[in-house]
Structure formats: structure tokens, C-alpha cells
Batch of 4 targets.
Target 1
Amino acid sequence: MNTAVGNGFDAKSGPLARREHILDTAQACFVRNGFRRTTMIDLARESAIGRCNFHRYFGSKEAIVEALARRDRARCAVLVAELGRTASPRAVLTGVLTRTLSGITRETAVLRLDLWAEAKRNAAIAAVVERTEEARAWLGGMFSLLALSPRCQPEALFDTINPLMKGIIVNRAVLLEYDSGATIAFLDALIDAGLRGELPHAPFTAVQLNR
Amino acid sequence: MNTAVGNGFDAKSGPLARREHILDTAQACFVRNGFRRTTMIDLARESAIGRCNFHRYFGSKEAIVEALARRDRARCAVLVAELGRTASPRAVLTGVLTRTLSGITRETAVLRLDLWAEAKRNAAIAAVVERTEEARAWLGGMFSLLALSPRCQPEALFDTINPLMKGIIVNRAVLLEYDSGATIAFLDALIDAGLRGELPHAPFTAVQLNR
């Protein structure tokens, strides 16, 4: 992929640091102007890197978004490992959800909305968004591990909290003064109920209404 | 405002019909290309209306978005009135939530995401988004009317279901095969619990984690 470029950067401002700099700059640029309207020329200029050199790092806006998503996943993995050294699996789960949801900046949330909308128009972005849906695998595994009752349904529990997590991100983007604390606490309470197999199940009539 | 233009349309293709046509075309155009990238020139061309004439209907993209939102609110008011003729207030509530959430097309959901993201960048769009937050007033009023216990907290109930409703819209936009039925049924069950004053309350420690 985008490995060392060998253009004489020293250790501090080497290709990896420059790659990080591009990612940070691109994220800010996408947030300011929207993903669709931002061009590679804009991104090279904002990063203060010549266009040819810029292309040695990333060949497209989509590749940058993919790298941003990969960086987020890597940071999340580090968080899981760090928390796991001292906390129980249940506390790791709460810690990860709390940090990733309450810690998200308004800017990051806006970019997330942009990419969700863009997924309808752009197959490469749809693929990135689909990979972020892989949280399903991790969370499903945690729910299976932590289940307190045979009635706990990990998949159904994920489907229950998944739109709530997305709604928190929307509110973070849309509302100026948003405190996600109560909703995150509610999410955590839902997980507790789900692990005990006590999640309120969808009444059949209401489901029928949707068909 | 955009009142009759008096340019000799007959009743069927009169200014009102043409205005509706512009709104439908604009919505499709925003969905295809994104709000930010769509220009007034695109919209006039897509509507097959001369640019000068087009400007007599709408002076800006923002005015079109505002009109689309107003049309949605008007349709919702009609739905409330229709349901109210035969259904109880509680059934009206379920009916409105079910129809507006499960009936939303993927295209409309994508546009909603676009506008939520755009609100950060555009004060006029932020004002439109803020007005859609007025659902709070209607829903809060319904919860007060339908409360089954003095422990029911209409505001807190709204804050609980609000991110869930937004998450349903995100999933409609992002997931190709999304059936919102189970989540809408869960939402309805939460409302029941909230009206009985039995909504799980946020544990204090989890709220603290967010600060």
C-alpha cells in the first residue's frame, strides 16, 4: 500500500508522520466542504504537499477515507487492549462504547454523516461503510461471552442498540449542545437487560404494521 | 413567498403543480449528487424550466429545502388528522411513527443525512433542521396527554426515543435490505414503558463516565 516513499524525510517528519498529517488535514477538509465537493487538488494544497508527491501517498479520496476508517479501527483495538489489562470484559464493553460514542467530536460525526449519505452514490465508500458495520462481529462476540441467560440473543441485542448508537452520532453532528451521557447510560442499561435475556421483545402486531 | 406567478398555466400544470414538480425534481437531484454539489443551474435544467422563471419559484437551494421540509410537515399533519378520525390518540401516535419511519424511502433518508451534515456548514440549513426538531413539541404533547403514571417524564421519554428514530433513518440510508419493523416495534414498546413511568433510568455512574 502506501509504504515508505524514500524522499529523505527525517524520523520526525518521515513518510509515516506525513501520512498522518495528510489524514488529519483531509478529515478537516472533508468536514469543512463535504466529501463530495472536496477534490484531490484541494487536499494536496491544504496538506502543503506537491500534487505528484501527494499521489504517492493516496491515489484517491476514497483511499483516504479507507485509511481514516482503518486508523479508527486500529485506535479502537488499542483502546480494547488497554482497558482489557485492568477491567473485566463487561467493563471493557462499557468503556469502549462510552469512549467511542461520547468522545466523538462534532467534526468526526459530520464526516460520518457525509460518508453514510455518500455510500448511496459511491461503491468504494459503501465498502468502507460496510466494513465499519463489522462492529457487529465484535459486539456480537462480546454479548455471547457476557450472556447471563440462555434467553440472551446476541444478534437481536446488536440490532436493538445499533440504531441507537447511530442516532447518538447524528445528534452529536446536529445539536450544538449535545450531552450523550444519558443516552449512553440508557444503551448500557439495554445491554444489561439484553444480557439477562430481558430485553422487551417486539410485539408482533407492531412488526406487522411495517409490512 | 412563492405565490401564484400568473404566467398562464392551466389548472393542471399551473404554478402550484409546477412548484410541486420542482420540489420532486430537486429532491431527486439532491439525492443523486448531494446537496452541496447541486447548483441552481442543475435544478433549473432538471426541472426543464428556464433559469429566470425558475428563480420566480425559488431564490436558492436553501429555499427549496425549506419548502420540502414544510411539505413534509404538512403531509404529517394530514396523516395525524386522518388517523385521528378513527383511531385513539395512542394509536395515532403509533401510526404516525410507523408510517413516517417505515415509509421513508432510501432516497429521502439519504437526503436527510446530507442535510444533517450540511447543517454544520450552512446556517439556513441548520435552521431547517432545527425546525424539524419541533417534532419534540408534538411528541412531548402526546406523551403528556397519554401518560399513565405521574412518574412519566415526557421530555426524558422524547430524549430516549429521539436518537433511536434518527438511527432508523441512518440504517434506511445505509443498509440495502433494511427492515425497520423490529426497531419501530421496540420504539413503541419503549413509549409504552415510558408512559407507564417504567423507562429504565440512566445509572448515575454511566452518566459520569461521559464527563
Target 2
Amino acid sequence: MAVEVVYRSSRDPERLFMDKAEADRYDKMLELAESLAEVLQKAVPSLSEQQVEELGIYMAKNRDIFARAFKNQPDALAELEQPAE
Amino acid sequence: MAVEVVYRSSRDPERLFMDKAEADRYDKMLELAESLAEVLQKAVPSLSEQQVEELGIYMAKNRDIFARAFKNQPDALAELEQPAE
């Protein structure tokens, strides 16, 4: 038995990481997802809380592709994989 | 009376522009909006056609802000204005 260090994002305390860098990336992804959910909810009020959460997480997980699409490569979106169910 | 040149995007033939560059920008915005609507519909199947269309147009109109947010400045989203009703 031994004491070991684990890392987690305060935004999702259930999920533990052995690697700090990985926990950082996960925290940043959740941060972007939350901000996106908030602005999209205001922009399209008919969306449910769950829908904007799913949208935010989906886009935040694929942030590199969306960054390129919004910058000047709409075709980058073709690289998106279907979400795993 | 005189004949004059007007421009339009084939994606929205109702809207006419006197300025070709403006018509080009509008066409590019609609192109991005359509691609976004398509990928978001697949990612979150519960969204209605109208909801993904609104999301796509909203984000495409604000593409510069979203590009920065996805790249590395989530705070850029704070610059978004409330959508005009």
C-alpha cells in the first residue's frame, strides 16, 4: 500500500487523473465547454440545458478543428468523426 | 432608368447586394453556417433543423470571436453581444 497523487478538475471532481498535464487539458476542455454552453443558450433560447451542454462538450473536445473552421477552413469540419454513443 | 448590376449568394437568392465584396462575405458566412448546422445536427441529434440553423448562423456571423475562443482565448466569448431579436 502507498499514498499516491491523483489529479482532478474542480469542474468534474469524479474524474481522477494520474497525469497532471492530462488533468489540465481536461479542465481547459470543460472550461471552454461551459463558456460555449452559456453563449449558445443565450443565442438560441429554445435549446435545453442538456443540449447546450452536449454542444459545448462536443465542440470543446474538437476545438482544434473548430478553430480552423472558424478561422478560414470550413472544410476542416469534414474531419470530425461521428460522436461515439 | 438604367440597368444596374446586383449581386447575390446562390444560397439565399432573395438577398441582393450592390457590392460584390459584401455578397462574397455573406456567401462565405452562409457556407460556414450550413457546414456547422450539419455537423452539430449529427453531434446532437435531438436538435431541430431550425435550432441548428440558428446556431450555425449565429456562430458564423461571429466567426472571428469563435475562432479566437477555440484557438486559445475562451474569454473572447465575453465579447459576444446578445443576439438582436
Target 3
Amino acid sequence: MADSAYAPVDFSSWTCPAPLRDHDRIVMGHGGGGTLSAELVEHLFAPAFGNSVLAELGDAAHLRMGGARLAFSTDSFVVRPLFFPGGSIGDLAVNGTVNDLAMAGAVPAYLSCGFILEEGVELSVVGRVAEAMGEAARTAGVLVATGDTKVVDAGHGDGVFINTAGIGLIPDGVDIRPQRAAPGDVVLVSGPIGVHGVAIMSVREGLEFGVEIQSDTASLAGLVADMLAVCPDLHVLRDPTRGGLATSLNEIAAAARVGITLDERSLPVPETVANACAFLGLDPLYVANEGKLVAFVAAEHADAVLAAMRAHPLGKESVAIGHCVPDHPGMVVAATGLGGTRVVDMPLGEQLPRIC
Amino acid sequence: MADSAYAPVDFSSWTCPAPLRDHDRIVMGHGGGGTLSAELVEHLFAPAFGNSVLAELGDAAHLRMGGARLAFSTDSFVVRPLFFPGGSIGDLAVNGTVNDLAMAGAVPAYLSCGFILEEGVELSVVGRVAEAMGEAARTAGVLVATGDTKVVDAGHGDGVFINTAGIGLIPDGVDIRPQRAAPGDVVLVSGPIGVHGVAIMSVREGLEFGVEIQSDTASLAGLVADMLAVCPDLHVLRDPTRGGLATSLNEIAAAARVGITLDERSLPVPETVANACAFLGLDPLYVANEGKLVAFVAAEHADAVLAAMRAHPLGKESVAIGHCVPDHPGMVVAATGLGGTRVVDMPLGEQLPRIC
């Protein structure tokens, strides 16, 4: 490769294929899952890696190997604090990647696990994180098949960072992709939104809102299996993590070139989350979830899928929140309780850094 | 999972399944690939994850999915500096995982890529790293299929950390595992050892040894393909990265319960590496390589495999360095130039931290 010359490294010769909002340095928002993250992928990583698989921008890549249809996905986890009400970085590291595979309709099977540990972190902390991962993996029905541990000097990490990658098998006949959203589709969500983000922020800011809010981190693989059993032709699934429901819906609207209309009154926002969001100045539509999914289903299947979701422990509070329309392609519009409408935009960065 | 209680987290209830050399905190050596790393896997991760796939301790897991035989592997990269003579963290991130797959006899196909970036790092640096990854991926014949970017606050990371995981297809009839080393096998190495580690240390310490020593980072997938073409029944392949050739040989001796004898005079140590090691107080047998492999081959195939290796640009300087014996199972012994022998032990940690 060309880069074999040694210091001083001359970066002046490197030019970004398109301006990245005039940033010349990484800001927190580049990791937020919003517009800045998307720009980084579109203008920097995709051209550098130069391939079309990455450019599909799903949460998981769809691959075909030796006759098998596979989903392949990765996520790194840098959440602070490591332990929080309802879970830990270990739960997120397993469930996050398991859910990305499930959102491709795949049956999650194997995970890899890469730790980057900071010198000086207690072995008991690493042990507790690993046990949480093991427990979450058993619950989700996946095996941690391969791993790696690196250690960085004190002051050059932050306790425990984890990367997981996962592989799952996509059943024959299943074709779930953001591009398949179509006018007429009903949009379903599997339960209350904004819970994970508010749980993390409450801990981090030392806030209390009457009752403790617990993260919703969970494996959604079983829920998806039950949904596929009644409707193998699900169009789109997405777990609205970083950037929340608004970001996922905007990505889907853009990928499929459809409009999405939401009925704001039908959005399942628990009172505790609403109160916390009011206090923190957050919009629950943009707050991260770690155990919820949004599904796009043809209207004729919507009732059956909704019933299947409500019959599952993780989908008891599932509701329809809107539908796809041929108007305003690429745009998400919410009908407000007052009879008006508002555009639900893609966020620039993330309101809540290091939420996962 | 059990861990839903919130702060103060009580770690006193957590007990490590076996004492980890009396450490109660992570030290740099836990990331060094030696005995401390192995203890962390054996006593902490394997019991927590509770499965047998991980326990095989190969560089890649061997999986069967939908009729396909797959290799699956992961590595995180935290090397300092990010750019060094002969390559960059981007090259290592691609070649390291590609080589782990190739050492299972797999044809590397897809990589995932997870970045953990530190707030404030120049976009031009990220761009150069990504371009190096793209170039290395094209050379190795793999696609970066899925990715993720997280950002941590300034002072809680170190510029750029990268995790890659990879999937490759294992051809029918190929069965390459450390357990297959057998008495009588000839041990081959594909060229000069210790080059990568010395290249990094020279830069980091600002040392010069007459000529610039360049890292040997390279994809070994093509070399392995040529070796398999003449001998599908290779027993063991390993790329001696962290911990060097001594660590790889000890792992193989332990896994297969065979003895290994080396002819010290046959070890390909370049004069520049020997000089640097003498100056730095290092043993070249323990210094990391990033573009070399060691192969265990039945004696009757050794000449053909060695010839195939020498015919490949990355194997021109291949040599036989020893063989497997029924004596001293689990132990590596070197015949010195003076007619004596010495035990080549497993290192505790890594002489050179953050080498990859």
C-alpha cells in the first residue's frame, strides 16, 4: 500500500471526498448515530472501503456464503456508567448485536467479543461484565465463539470498551430491508419508548423521578421469531437505539423513498419518561431504546402481527403508531394532538453521548 | 439477568473461578497474548461465557451454518503510533483478522469494522486509516461489509481504536487446528521473524539501527492458498503475532500434547532485528510478526510445501526450523548453536505493549 513512508506523516495530501460540515476533527456527534454519523460513513468510510455491501446502510450486512444466507453485524459499546438500572455494558454488548441480526430477520447464532480494557480496572468489574454477557448470550440463544482482549495504558481508555460482531442465519423466504417499506404499510412499535436513554441519564446526572427507571435492554430474537411465524413477509424491522425512533424512521423513509406519518397521540411514552425528558430538555422520539423494535407490515397483515407481538412478554404494549404514504417521500411527519403536523427531522448528533 | 441492582455496585459478591496470579486489577500483560492473557480467557471469560467453542483457543472459531463451514475471528487494534514504517493501524486491522481466518484454512471473505474514536482526533487521520484499510482489504480480497463508529470524550481514548471481525469459508477436506500437530511433523516458517515488533519499537523509542526496519504487515491468504494447492492436509497454521514465534509454538505444543524441537541456528533472524533486540534486551523469538506464518506439515509433504512457500512473494525466505517429537509433550526446546538445549517458555505478558 502507498502509506509506507514514515514520520513526519503528511496529512495535507489527504482530502475528504466531500466536506464533512466543516469539521476537521471528530466531535462527539460523529458517534451519535445521526446525520454526522451518516456523513462519516457516506463521505469517508464508504469511499475508502469502496464497496456496495457497506453502502446499503442497514444495521446488518446480508451475505451469501457456501449456499447459506447470513446476516453479519458489529457494534462497539462505550456506555457510561458500566452498570446501570436494568443492566450493564455486558447486556448491551450481547443484546445490541443480537438485535441487529434479528432486525435482518436472521436467527442470531454466534458472537465475537473484543475487549479493550484500561490498565488498572478491577478484575471483579471485568468478571461481572463477562458474567452479564454470558447470561445475556444464554437468554438470547447465542454462543460467544471467539474473542480478543487488548489492554491500554491507564488514562488512554475508560475502564471497559466492548466490541461484538455477530452472525445469524436468514431463513428462506425472509427479505427484511429498509428499502422494502411501501405506501400503505402500518408502522408498529413493540412498547414504551425512551426508557434506556432516560435510565442512563438519570444515573449519570444523579436524578430521581419518583420511581427508578430501568433500561429495557433485551434480546428481541424471540419476539421476531413469533412475528415471522404469523407473517414471513415482514417488510422492515429496526431497533431504534442511538438517535431513537425518529432516527430509525428517517433512515427507513430515506432508504425506501416513502413518506411516514405518525400519530403523535399513539406514541407509547411512559409518564416517567415524559417527565424526565421535560426536565432534561429531551424529545422522547430521539432517546435511545435497547429492547424495542419498530416494524413495517403490509396493512392486511398488521392485525395478526400486532396480536403476535402482544402475546410475547417483550411486546405486550405493542401499538400501531402510523403508516407509510406516497406523499413527502423521505420525510417523517407527525400529526400532533392539536390537529396540526410537524416534521420529525433526522438529528445532527446524539442528545445523549455514550448511551450504548 | 441477575445484575439489575443499581449503585453502589457490590463487587465483593463476585469471585473469580480461580486466582489470576494474585492480580486484582488489569495489568498491561493481560493484553499481551502470553500466560496472563491465557489465564484471563481460561479462568474468567470461558467460565462466564460457558461454552466449548471458545475453549478451543484457536485464533478463529470453526462454525457450521446452513451447510457452510465457516471460520469466524475478531481482533482489536490499539497500536501506537497509528502510522509506522511499513504500515498503519488500518493495515494491521485488516491483515490481522484476515490472517486469523487464513490460519484456519479459510478463504477470508467479509470483515466488520468497529471504530472507537477519541473526540478531537483529526478527520484526516481517520481518513488515512480508512484508506489504508480499504487498500489492504482490496489486496487481501475481502469486503468490509458492516461497520460502527463510537466516539469517546477527549482523554478517555487514544485517537483511534479499531476492532475487526471476519468470516471466511473453509474448503471441504481442510482441517487445520493446533490439535493436529503430530510427532514427525516438520515446522516451517515463512520468513524473517521479529520484524514488526522491532519496527514499532524503533519508532516509539526513536531508535535507528542503520537501516529503517519496516513492519512486515501483509495478508497471508494468498500464500496459504498456494500451500493448500500442493498439500490440502496441512496440520497446523499459525501467524505468530503478539508474543512472537515462541508463544505460538507453546500454544500448539500444549494443544496437541506434543514436544517441539527447534534448531536455533535455522531461525531466520535478520541482522538488523538481532542488533535491535540486543540493544533493547529482547529475544526475537518473542517479538511480534504481522506477515509471517508457521506451518506444521507431515514430513512426506514438507519439501513440496516449502517449495510452494518459496515460490510465493511473501514466502521467498521460508525455512524449516524444527519438528514435532513424542518427547517432552507440551514443551518447546531449542537446540542451541553450542550443542546444548534450552527450554523456550511461554512468556507471562508481552515484552512490547500495544504492538498491534
Target 4
Amino acid sequence: MKKTAKAYGAKSATADLEPMTIERRELQATDVNIDILYCGVCHSDIHTVRNDWKGSTYPVIPGHEIIGRVTEVGPNVNNFKVGDLVGVGCMVDSCQSCNSCQHDLEQFCENGATFTYNSPDKHLGGQTYGGYTTSVVCDQEFVLRVPENIDPKGAAPLLCAGITTWSPLRHWKVKKGDKVGVIGLGGLGHMGVKFANALGAHVVMITTSPDKADDAERLGAHEVLISKDQDAMKAHANSFDFILNTIPVGHEMDPYLSLLKIDATMVLVGAIENMREFHGGSLVMGRKRVAGSLIGGIKETQEMLDFCGEHNIVSDIEVIDMQNINEAYERVTKNDVKYRFVIDMASLK
Amino acid sequence: MKKTAKAYGAKSATADLEPMTIERRELQATDVNIDILYCGVCHSDIHTVRNDWKGSTYPVIPGHEIIGRVTEVGPNVNNFKVGDLVGVGCMVDSCQSCNSCQHDLEQFCENGATFTYNSPDKHLGGQTYGGYTTSVVCDQEFVLRVPENIDPKGAAPLLCAGITTWSPLRHWKVKKGDKVGVIGLGGLGHMGVKFANALGAHVVMITTSPDKADDAERLGAHEVLISKDQDAMKAHANSFDFILNTIPVGHEMDPYLSLLKIDATMVLVGAIENMREFHGGSLVMGRKRVAGSLIGGIKETQEMLDFCGEHNIVSDIEVIDMQNINEAYERVTKNDVKYRFVIDMASLK
């Protein structure tokens, strides 16, 4: 018997989100059914609702920062039991056999990962529906264990904002004593600061806004560098071991590249759009690098959640009711949130 | 007693090169005096003569692909003796004590490497003078040993074009079986093809010009990919382990980034100027990287020369007399040379 769930979604690129009823698939042998407690609001949700990246198929039910409790497990589920606190992030399936999947990089599955929403649904046809809903059915391989000691509301954004910043910090081996810059203090940036601090780095928040200094330091930054202050930028030239760039829109890169040490890397995680011109010499002089990074694999996501449990790290959030999602979207687009909205799904039940 | 040498140089950004007489410093304890046999003509020579990068101080005596024989050594020279075949590349000095120098990256000397021409001269004041001359005095630490079994004329461009392409291939650990792209078939690109081939890679010449295909294959390319052929570009998408980008001017990067595998790097060595806009997603989707690389350190340059001796690799060149340098410059700016001009310095003596 197919399951239904209450949800909130958009019927078109210009419509507000509104209540809907969606189908969830019947539980398969390796499936876990999850009662959703909280779901974070990611900027990608808004881009998909508004079809900014094209390819949106309506209705769109967004949400890929899902926290809930297991209510049912299929007969072959061996990792989870009823009552477990779990999470589902940006992906719900992948081929599990290609080179990327075998290297724990499901986000780059060569046969196409199934993303949590607006991705072709192998089970029901049509598109996948995300976490702005009361329940989700997901294969156990894509279900994450959430430590019971951390606040589950604050844990929701770890599933996207968390892993998106954790993955590059780990992949580029940020370690104790490294000087790490985090550019931009938003949903991603505030997690980057917390993680880099917890990894033992000397963390510098790089921002255009002097008024973000206090908050950056509260979150774990040891210094704040105002990128419009040319003297300050010069004083930090060629000194960073790693820079995590969370700016969500296209921007100039040369001023930030000037901050990198020889052989150091700046990783873009926020801007899936055109970057402005940059000077070849900004990379050539110092063998510097620019890279990109996309969320992270499932194994790495579990490692991140375990680390958060050990270090008691969650996101700074504002909790909203499902019914207030449209106002929340307006505020996100104005960067008016510290630092992530999380929907309390009890409001939909 | 100060030495003088016959030379060719430019008195201003708009002047042709003309005969001059320059001073060379007296031999110091660790200096080697070199009778110059050949000097390659690098595009950087022209940029400096024409003040394209600003900061040129006249007269400019270019030339940093120098091959010659030792005629005299200082009392503390222990690496070279009279008669040795040697080379001098882009640098003639560095502090030898900073972090970069201690890691064999003299090109990034934190106290400023002394480049072979148009760099502040610590000994005589003014600017250093390059290799378009009959002799040069150089500290032994910056003199390279040239294998006697390779053609000394063809060896000249190894000192810049050679190390510029060798260094990134080695630093990014190109190995047997890797699929390596070399973009652009000029002075740099033709060396990139030879080296990548000799390192055992599957080499793909990536060019806009179908008429370069035969020559690319003669030089060692296993395939030729015409970058304007969109079907061909798609067929090669996400398949390259490494791309060496020798395009000498600013250009679009997205089409080339699409060729890289997950985690693979494209290295810019040619364009010290503005690159066009590129899409953040070109890096984010696949955790791809763009880097820059500048010549190479002295130790690595010696390794490259030794490798050339073992594999009998030299540049493809056209030999000219010193007096024909101005015509050669015109031809270089039109890419009308296969693949490097080398001045026979006997013409100046």
C-alpha cells in the first residue's frame, strides 16, 4: 500500500509554497521509514523552487536537511532500528557500483546520484520529494546516524551546510595550527568557522561586513579580516594555508588568491554561477590553486556527524513553523537569518 | 677588472633590438664565467622588451635560455670546471635561506629571486642583463649541468620552456597510463607533449587548429582533440587525469574544465593575464582544480636536464643569427615558429 504524507511544495517557479499531499513509496527490504522532526531550509531549496538552475519539475517539494526518528525498517535493514535518531541529506540513492561510489563519492556517481528532491525517482517515477513533509522512506545506505547528545534541531543543517564545509576542510587536510580563511558568514560560512576551529586551525573570518566581527568571533574565528580594507588584506598576503570560499554569488577572485601561501588552495563551495575574470598570474605566482567541492559522500557525512557528537557542534538556527516558509524564503534571500532556518515539522502534523 | 661583453638589447619599449656593450661582474669566489654558445628566444623576452608587464628598465638585454661552456671558475666553485657544458635559465640568484629556497622553490624566493634579466642586480646595481650576449657570470648554485649527449642548440629552450612544462607534470605526479591533455602547440606545448609522452602518459594535444595534428603526433601526441569540435569535446568529457594549459593569452576555461576527471587539475603556465569568466559549477561538479605554475626550482631544472639526457629530448628549433632577432620577434608574435628560435651566439662574436 502506498503511503501518503502531508507536505509543502511549490506548483510553479513563481508560486508560494502551499500544503500538498504526496506519495511515499512502500517500504522495500532495505528501506527505512522516518518520521521527520526537523528540516533545514537551504538556499538550494529556493533556487530549485524558483527554477534558478533550470530543470525544476513541479510540484517541487524541497528539503534536504532532514532529521527524524525511525518508525519502521525493511526486513534486510541491519544498520537501524525503530526509534533511532537519523538524518537524510542531499542524496537518497546512487548506483553504488561506479568508480565514484566505490570511492565514497556518491555525489559524483557516474550513473547519476538520486538527489533528495527534484531528481528522477526510480521507485515511483516522476521526481523525488524532499523533507518539507511529515515522513520519508529512504534506503538504509543513505540514512545517517545522528548522535543523541546533540540538539536535533541544530543538527538538521549539518546534512547540507555541515557536510559542504566539512568535506573540503577534511579533503584538503586542514590541521592544527593551519591558518584557515572562511570567506562569507552565512549558513555555510558559520559552519566552516565552527569546523575549522574544532580542527585546531587558526581561523580568520574574511568578510565585507565589519558588523559581523563579533558574531564571527563568538562562532570560533580568531581574527576577522575585512576584505575591503586593502591594508589589512596586504598584511595577510601569502599567509593562508587554506581558504574556504562560501560566497554564494559570482565574485572577483584575485584579492582572495593574493592571501594564499605557495601551493595553497581556495575552495569554492557557494557559487554555482559565473565567477568574474581573474588574472592568470594570481595562480602562476605561487603555484596557487582554486578548486570546487560539492557536499560530500555518505561515509564522510557520517564522520562529520560523529565529530559533531564528540565536539557538541550544531548549527545556529531559527526554528519556524512550516506555515511560515514563504516569509522565511524572503528573509533567506536578504541574508536575514542567523544562520539557518529549521522547520519544526510538528507544525505540519 | 670589470668584464665587458657584446650584446643585443632594446633602449625603449618601442625600439628594435640593437648592438650594445654591457658590463659583466668580476668573478666572485663561487662564480662561474660562461662563454655563451646559444640562447633561446622566449615570448617573455618580447613582453619585457615591449614593457607589456610594466616595470621594464632600459636598456633591456633579454634571454634566459642560455647554453654555454665554462671558461673560468672562482676559487670556491666545486661543481663545475673549465670546459663544462652548462646552462643558465630564468634565475641567477635567490636568498637561499627562506622557506621557499629551502624547499627548492627559488622561483618563489620570499626575499625576491634575481631573475636573469630586468631584475635588480645585487652586484653591479641597475638591472640584470640576460643571454643575448657573448658571456655571463653566474653563481654556481644557478648554473645547470647540460648532458653532453644532447644537441646544445636544442637544449637552450629547456631552460625555460622545458622546465615550465616539466615542473607541473612532475609536481602533479603525471605517470604511466595517465591521460594527459596539452592545450596549445607552441614553444611550451611542444615540450609538454614530449615530456608527457616520455613519462608514459597517453597524450592528447588539444588545439583549435586541425592543421597541427600531424606535427603533434610526430612530437609524441597519441591523439589530437580539436577544441572547437563540440562532439569530440563531449566524447572526452570527464576523462583527463591532468591538463597542461599553455595558451599564452586569456581565454575561456569552462570547455577545458569539462574534460577533467573528478579531482583532476588543469595547470596554467602560459597566460599571465586576465582569464575570462568561468562557471563555479565547472569546479564544484567533480571537485576539479585549476592551478598555476611558474618555471621550476634549480634542483628540478637539473632533474629535467638529466631526464632529457637519458631520453635524448631537446626542443624543436630554428637557429638564427643575433642580427636577425627583430624579424624573429615579429614571427614569434605571429606564432610563426616551430617551435622556438635559438640564437647562435657565434654570430655576435
